[in-house]
Amino acid sequence: GNWARLAAQQRLTQDDLLAMPAFGNVSLIHITDIHAQLKPIYFREPSVNIGVGGNRGEVPHLTGAEFRKMYGIEDGSPSHYALSSGDFTALARGYGRVGGMDRVATVVKQIRSERPDALLLDGGDTWHGSYTCYQTAGQDCVNVMNLLKPDAMTFHWEFTLGSDRVREIVEGLPFAALGQNIFDAEWDEPAELFQPYKFFERGGVKIAVIGQAFPYMPIANPSWMFPEYSFGIRDERMQDMVDEVRAGGAELVVVLSHNGFDVDKKMAEKVTGIDVLLSGHTHDALPEPVLVGETIIIASGSNGKFVSRVDLDVQGGRMMGFRHKLIPIFSDVIAPDPEMTALIDAQRAPYADQLSEVIGHTDTTLYRRGNFNGTWDDLICDALLTQRDAQIALSPGVRWGPSLLEGDPITREDLWNVTSMSYPEAYRSEMTGEFLKIVLEDVADNIFNPDPYYQQGGDMVRVGGLSYRIDVTAPAGQRVSEMTLLRTGEAIDPAKSYTVAGWASVNEGTEGPPIWDVVESHIRSLGRVQLGENTSVEVVGA
Amino acid sequence: LALGAMALTVLPFRANASVDDLIAEFTGGADLADSGVDLTAPEIAENGNTVPISVDAPGASEILVLAAGNPTPAVATFAFGPLAGSRMASTRIRLAGTQEVIAVAKLEDGTFARAAKTVKVTIGGCGG
Amino acid sequence: MASGVKPRVKVPKSASAGEVVTLKTLISHPMESGQRKDKDGSLIPRSIINRFTCDFNGQNVIDVKMEPAISTNPYFEFEALVPEAGEFTFTWYDDDGSTYTDTKPIEIV
Ligand SMILES: [Mn+2]
Ligand SMILES: [Mn+2]
C-alpha cells in the first residue's frame, strides 16, 4: 500500500541514486530525448511496446510485470515506478515527479566531481517540445544545455526549427554537433555544418565519438523545413568512420545515435568496432546495457527522466570492462542545482502567466506512450472530432509528451508539452476509405516491419471515431482490417469519402488552427476531462 | 502524417509485363546471374520523387536500370567508355510507390547479371 | 529550349597520370515526364533530357540513356580515368533538340 511506498521514498536518498563505485579510466554520461522538459514532470512508461521479427519478446519490447520480472525489479519499488508501467498513478503520488534539468545538472556535477574527465553526450530531441521552447525557437533549451556543458550532441526534432535556425544555433554551439549521416542533399556529400565525429583525450584515453542523427528525418518530419539535407542510416559510411577513427588512434569508439533501439541493434551487428552505442529516439529506458557482439548499447529514456553513467576500463586500445548505472531523476530526492534552477526560471519568467493558466482538470490520468492509443491522444482526437466537426480524427504517434495524474489541473504548459511543434495546423479534409486504409497500413509498417531498418521509431497513428483490427505479424499492406466508423457502426467503405481532422501533417501549406487551440477549446468546454477505456483497436499477433 | 501523398499510390505494384520485355531486349534472352552487379538504394525513400541509386558492376560495358512498379519501367542505361574509371554510376530516380528497382549488367565476357532491391515509398509522419 | 537550364559539375583540379577521379554533375531541368496532367486535366507533354555524355580529350567516359523516371535536376556521379592533362566535356541532350555543354580542365601533378 501507500505507506510502504512513502516509506520507500523517504528512504531513497540522492546518495543512493547516484552511488556508483568508480571503475576504469573513462566515464560517459548520456542524456537523450529531453524534448524541452526543463521542469520535473510525470512520465508513464508504455504498457504496450510490441517487438516484431527477431525482436519479438526482446527488450525494450517488454513492459509492465514482464519487464520487472526480466530485471528482477520488485513491485512498488522505485525502479518499478521509474522504468515500467502498472499502478502508475498510485506510484506517481508516492514517488513524485521525475526529471528537471536542474536535477540533471546536480547529477552531472556530482559525476564530474568524481570523474572530472567524464564526457557528457546529448542524443538529441533536445530543442523541441514545450511552450517556451516554441516561443524562443529553441533558445531556452540551448541556454540550459550550454550551462550543462555537453561535449557533443546529435539531432532529430531540432531540424523542425527550420534549417536557417538550426544553422544559426549550431554555428554558435560551444560543443560538437555530430552526424556522420547528415548530408548535403544536392551533391550527396557530408554536410559541412556537422562533423561526423570528434576526438577527445580523456583519462589518458583517446576517445572518438561518432554522431548518428535520426535517419528518417525527411519522412517523419516535414522535409520542406530542411530541404538542404539528406539523412539515411548509411551504415557503410558508419563502418568507414569507425575504421577511420581507429586508424587515427581511437582507443574507444562511442556512437552517439538517434536511430532508435532496434535500428541501433541491427547497426551494431553490421558495423564492427563500436565499443559503446548510446541509443536515442525510441525513448526506451533500460537498466542494463544490451550486448550485441562486442558493442554495448545504452538506452537512457526520455523527457529528462534518466541520466546514464557508463564507466569503462580501456587498456591498450581495448574496452576491457564496463559498469553502468541508469540514474532515475526523482525530483523530490535529487536536490536541484541552484544555478540551473535560476537559469530555467529566468527563461520561463516572461511566459509565467501563459504557462500557469489552468484551462481545465482531468479525472483520468493522461499519458501518451504506447504503440496504440494513449489517453492524451484520446483527448486530442475527441477535440479534433468535436471542434473540427469531423467523422474521423488522426493524431500522430509521437513518443514525447509527459503525463498528468487524475485530479490534476491541466495548465496551458501541460497541453503544450504534448502538442508543441512547428507544424501544428489542425487540418480538416476529405479522405476516401481506401486512402485511410493506406494511411494506417503505411504507418503500421513503419512500426511493425520485421526489418528494423524499415522502422521509423514512432508509435501507431492514433485514431478517433474509427475502430480497426491489426495483425502485427501480417505482411505490409495486410495488417489492418475491420475498419469501422464508430458513429454509425458501419464498415469503412473504400470508395466513400469521410471527413477527417488531424494535425502534424508533413505537407507544406497545411491549413488549420494550431492543435493546442483546438484542444484548449475542447478542454474548456468540458471543464473536467473524463475518458472511458479505449477499445477501438484490436491487436492480434503480439 | 501526410495528406498530399494522396497523389502517390503507396501499395506495392505487380511487376509490369514490360519489365521482362525490356530485359529481354537488353540481353537478347540470355540467362541472368545473381551476382556480378551491385545495386545500392535506400530501404525507405526520403522522397519518392528523388531516390538515390547506385549501380556497380566490375567488367560491365552497360548497365540497365528499371523501376518495376513505375507506369513506364525504363529508368536509364549506363554505357561505359574507354576512359570509365570504374563501372559504377549513381543517379536519382522517380518511384511511383513502393517497388523493386532492378539493375541488369552486360559484362564484357558476354554474360549478364541481375540485382534488385525493394525501395519503400512511404507517407511518413509521426516519430519519436 | 527549356528555360533556366544550368549545368554544374564537380571535377578535381588535378590528378596524377593514370588516376581514377570521381565526377559529379547536376543540371537544373524540370524533366517533365509526359505523365502529369495540368489543372485542366490535359496531359503536359514530355520534355526531358534524354541523354548525357562525358568525354575526356575526345574519348568517352560514360554515355547515359535517360528516361522520364530520372528525377528533376538530373544528377550523376561516376568515375573517370585520367591518362594525361586535358579537358572533360559534359553534354546533355534535350528532347527539344537543344544541347547543353560544360567543360572542365584537369592538370596532372
Ligand atoms: Mn525523442
Ligand atoms: Mn527522435
TrEMBL record, chain C:
Family annotation (InterPro entries): Ig-like_fold, Ig_E-set, SoxZ, SoxZ_dom
Transmembrane segments: none
Origin: domain of life: Bacteria
Gene3D superfamilies named among the record's database cross-references: Immunoglobulins
Pfam families documented for this protein: SoxZ
Stretches assigned to the Sulphur oxidation protein SoxZ domain: 10-103
Protein's UniProt name: Thiosulfate oxidation carrier complex protein SoxZ
Originating gene: soxZ
